[in-house]
Amino acid sequence: MATMPILPNMPALDLIKSFKLKTKQQELLIRVSILCLVYILAFITRLFSVLRYESMIHEFDPYFNYRTTLYLTQNGFYDFWNWFDYESWYPLGRIVGGTLYPGLMVTAALIYRILHFLRFAVHIREVCVLTAPFFASNTTLVAYFFGKEIWDTGAGLVAAILIAICPGYISRSVAGSYDNEGVAIFALLFTFYLFVKAVNTGSLAWSLASAFGYFYMVSAWGGYVFIINLIPLYVLVLLITGRYSMRLYVAYNCMYVLGMLLAMQIRFVGFQHVQSGEHMAAMGVFFLLQVFYFLDWVKHMLSDTKLFQAFLRITVTCAVAVGAIALGLGMLSGYISPWTGRFYSLLDPTYAKDHIPIIASVSEHQPTAWSSFMFDFHILLFLFPAGLYFCFKRLSDATIFIVMYGLTSMYFAGVMVRLILVATPAVCLVSAIAVSATVKNLTVLLRSKNKGVQTGSTKGSSSSKASSKALLDQSQPFQKNGAIALLFGAFYLLSKYATHCTWVTSEAYSSPSIVLAARGAHGSRVIFDDYREAYFWLRQNTPPDAKVMSWWDYGYQITAMGNRTVIVDNNTWNNTHIATVGRAMSSYEDEAIEIMRSLDVDYVLVVFGGVTGYSSDDINKFLWMVRIGGGVFPVIKEPDYLVNGEYRVDKGAAPKMLNCLMYKLCYYRFGEMLTEYGKPPGYDRARGVEIGNKDIKLEHLEEAFTTSNWIVRIYKVKPPNNRW
Amino acid sequence: MEVPIRATGILGFTFFSLLFFICTSSPLHNLFISNAERRIDATSHIVKVYLTLKVENAGSTPTSEVLLAFPPTRVDHLATVEALVTKGKRKKTTLVRLDVKPTELPDAPNGAKYFTIYLANPLNSGESTTLEVLYLFTHSLEPFPAEIGQSESQLVHYRDSALILSPYHIKQQTTFIKTPSSKVESFTRVEPTNRAGTEIKYGPYEDRPPYSFSPILIHFENNSPFPVVEELVREVEISHWGNLQVTEQYTLVHGGARHKGVFSRVDFQSRPTLSGASSLRHLLARLPPRVHSVYYRDEIGNISSSHLRTDSRKSELEIEPRYPLFGGWKATFVIGYGLPLQDFLFESSDDRRYLNFTFGCPLLETVVDKLTVKVVLPEGSKDPSAVVPFPVDQHLETKYSYLDVVGRTVVVVEKKNLVPVQNSHFQVYYTFKPIFMLAEPLMLASAFFLFFVACVAYLHIDLSIPMLSVRGVNIRYGCAKIKPISKCVSDMKETKLSDPADPPAMNDSSNRSLGG
């Protein structure tokens, strides 16, 4: 290079020549740059909320995760692990270290430490806000490698692009959505990828890696149960379809045994892998594999097939019998716990509605509507079956895995809205196969045809291929146009997908839900920051040991932002406690005050949307409080709050409804308020009616604070009157 | 609170009058005050006292020191004392600021505290001069009743003396007290006393001996909010790349009568003048001009209710706390902004640099109980020294910010009980070599360089363990096992066998092609 200027004749040409890459190098360069771009795209498409609002934590659960992460970074790992939290579930408290999945917090704390070691003085909040997008970016890389493993590089690239912007995944991984799912989807896909790689190669190293991936997943999210059931199911399917191999044996045994041992280190999971009914399938398959291996060995030793058949029958019967007896004994003795309600509700969508109202009351646990499938997957919904077709056409261990992952997760996605998230990677991968295979076929068609035209016109073709070429030539004009049209169609669809994803991300999934935005009368943006106003008021102006009673939705936020003790929170581990709060809210004031005094409540917080028209307030959630309260305390009866099966708050409402604590607290002095021009005072904008009880007197409580738009109202429980 | 103050007041009075007879021979008594006029402004929660003294030297020796006396209970709340003297004749009068320093006197009656005013020109015998003295008291209006409901107005007690406490004989004196409204519940009468509108006049009193004291108590309505910043930490970070970043952490409290009972939003919204009249709804911060990237937030995020108005001479930031502050309610928040460095950083004659910045709190009408100013100097700066116009505590700290290796020197200056009048400038001198500016970019560049070198090295070095033979055995073994049991070996496995590149090394092989 240094000698270049000496040659005056053709320096430019030489330069170009020396920079010209070989085809393979070009391909690598393009691939790496596409991956880099996808990596960046996946990150920045999740930053809408940061740009539009601010760098803040969203929703409900992330606030708990943030609070624990803060504790972890301030007090160190051991304090975190042994943390007994007095600020929630008063008076019971919560053993935080033993009742959470620490993966997310440890990850964020680790990133924070590393950044500080590299002298980047970032705040832990920024780390928490950007953890989910960062892991989403990493997921695209995993998707690429996974796609490469099950199909080819092209499919990998398409999968990376699809998953980078898929709304189903973005919904849980926008900046600020600091939740377990943010890292768990990465861990899930990574574990699956490593396992498939281990099955494909039979390598102990990959299998070990997948065990560690599984460990990370267990530490991050309760959804690990999906892995520990899907992988045995997959192994079972491989066994049944006669695809048993040494590779599978190595991969599964190593992954299961090590993964199980590692998972036991997480306190929240503990010995569930050997004691819980949900994990028994994995163990059963583990033993089945051993039997299979043993039989294989015996068959290898015995040359007589008849003898082997007899032996096979005896062994299989014995094995099944022993397994069934062991399971039965375990169940009977209580050593193996039966399936939990949450697990049942996954298998049977109607179970929760009948038996566990607390699960059914959460909106993200509702069965999925078709529209939300369309919303979250868009064209992937149509590409998915096509991808399945391609997978079946080229069946291998890896494609069987992705087919099974896709089908099972699609079923679960249909059961619960939030499980669309789990299905998203599979849908993206399968769709990527469809896209990649189609586009590849079409381009091959275009290219070969061009060659055919050239060869046909310039030279005489060889005799052996003449007939086929003639055939090709004949169908060429139609094929060429068809291929071009189809290619354009594919690109049109894909670009539609990209615009849809961006639109959904920007409109639906990028609002922090703690700050509400609305359009004002003049088209300007109005911000309702009432939640934080109330929480900050609590934090600054109440005694540090004040106990706040609210519906459980707001528990995490009150402890994290208000820094005050709550009675119940979003970790719904004690149904009775929640039912007690539900009962207090749905009783008359003089009955409720007894309950509140027994719980040592100082403040009551309700969320009320009547002034702003905010519909997810406590009045709309009230029936769930009644149901959950009534589930434990039969004195609370749902029909008392309904009129002819109808839930209403106006004059025609049930008398119990008009006088229960929740109604009084929400509508206290609301009757004097003019909310909308041309409507009578006390017009509830969220429900569009004039309220039925305008003359509300409070005896044992007094209004302590109401936010500027009335969204949060806080009441103080008065001390008992003096007896003299 | 209230009882001890009153007790000391009465005690003080008796003591002072006693002491007057004891201390007679002192050089102080060469001076006497021929006329004194005091105007006390109690309209806001910072009580401003304007004192005009006509001092005459009756002694034989010239003197250049004039003493001001304060009762010990009030000196703790004394934020600042300034003295001015008028110079020149009728037309061209200019005010000249005089030095004022706290002084200890050995025979101070009943612990009275003194401030000495140093006259520019000694006052010769028989001459007289007129001094303008301004002093401010904080926390001197005591809410009574101490707790009020939302619709009640805030009443306060103000205690002082009808007579000016002075070590000198005062021939004639008058005191005016201005209240914010004409609503005065009660006031102590020390005849002659009369009240007109918002002003109460005590005096004129003739020929009062030194240390005369006559306690008065005025009970009046003061509905102005009492914003008190309990603690303010101002951090000024100098970046020689052209920016001065200021971060101010406030702990604000409404120091007026405590809020009692219900807070009703209906009343507050529909009757803003009657309900919560003394509540603190917004604050105004006066920032330097050309301010940029202003933010206003607290521990749980951004606070959206603020407005910034800028013009060429100043910037005004109007901020609202998240909720209106009633008496006793607290709010903590952070204000941050960036400023162009050239407005504040200068080079001194001895080749050092110095930062010239305002010392106090930018919020108007606010008392600061404790102020900490931290000046974060750029990494590599040496010999820091702060020059502050009044006595303060200072020490040095080290702070680590982005990409710091040795840490930045932080000059910490602390001051208690500060009022907005004291927003004077202070300077921090230090030496800094511009070459240090390049340290961080060079570090970043070299880190990226090393990263790329590592990448190139990785692509060129074959790190894989040669395991082709082992894997071959593995696969063959696997196939031998599969054949008898499975019906057929899937086509995938065949492709695997025929594929020359082994899957674990696939990345390496594809990567290697770049080098090859």
TrEMBL record, chain A:
Cofactor(s) required, per the database record: Mn(2+); Mg(2+)
Lineage: superkingdom: Eukaryota
Alphabetic keyword roster: Glycosyltransferase, Magnesium, Manganese, Membrane, Metal-binding, Transferase, Transmembrane, Transmembrane helix
EC number of this enzyme: 2.4.99.18
Pfam families named in the record: STT3, STT3-PglB_core
Reaction catalysis annotation: a di-trans,poly-cis-dolichyl diphosphooligosaccharide + L-asparaginyl-[protein] = N(4)-(oligosaccharide-(1->4)-N-acetyl-beta-D-glucosaminyl-(1->4)-N-acetyl-beta-D-glucosaminyl)-L-asparaginyl-[protein] + a di-trans,poly-cis-dolichyl diphosphate + H(+)
Membrane topology: Multi-pass membrane protein
Boundaries of every STT3/PglB/AglB core domain copy: 547-605
Keyword Metal-binding: yes
The keyword Glycosyltransferase is assigned to this record: yes
Subcellular location: Endomembrane system
UniProt pathway: Protein modification; protein glycosylation
Entry-linked InterPro entries: Oligo_trans_STT3, STT3-PglB_core, STT3_N
Membrane-crossing residue ranges in chain numbering: 28-48, 95-115, 127-147, 153-171, 183-208, 214-237, 249-268, 280-298, 310-336, 373-391, 398-414
Domain Oligosaccharyl transferase STT3 N-terminal: 32-430
Family membership noted in the UniProt record: Belongs to the STT3 family.
Protein name per its UniProtKB record: dolichyl-diphosphooligosaccharide--protein glycotransferase
Organism, as annotated: Hibiscus sabdariffa (roselle)
UniProtKB/TrEMBL annotation, chain B:
Membrane topology: Single-pass type I membrane protein
Region Disordered: start-end pairs: 494-516
Transmembrane segments: 442-461
InterPro entries given in the database record: Ribophorin_I
Pathway participation: Protein modification; protein glycosylation
Keywords: Endoplasmic reticulum, Membrane, Signal, Transmembrane, Transmembrane helix
Domain of life: Eukaryota
Bias (Polar residues): 507-516
Subcellular locations according to the entry: Endoplasmic reticulum membrane
Family as reported in the entry's similarity comment: Belongs to the OST1 family.
Assembly: Component of the oligosaccharyltransferase (OST) complex.
UniProt function note: Subunit of the oligosaccharyl transferase (OST) complex that catalyzes the initial transfer of a defined glycan (Glc(3)Man(9)GlcNAc(2) in eukaryotes) from the lipid carrier dolichol-pyrophosphate to an asparagine residue within an Asn-X-Ser/Thr consensus motif in nascent polypeptide chains, the first step in protein N-glycosylation. N-glycosylation occurs cotranslationally and the complex associates with the Sec61 complex at the channel-forming translocon complex that mediates protein translocation across the endoplasmic reticulum (ER). All subunits are required for a maximal enzyme activity.
Protein name: Dolichyl-diphosphooligosaccharide--protein glycosyltransferase subunit 1
Taxonomy of the source species: Eukaryota, Viridiplantae, Streptophyta, Embryophyta, Tracheophyta
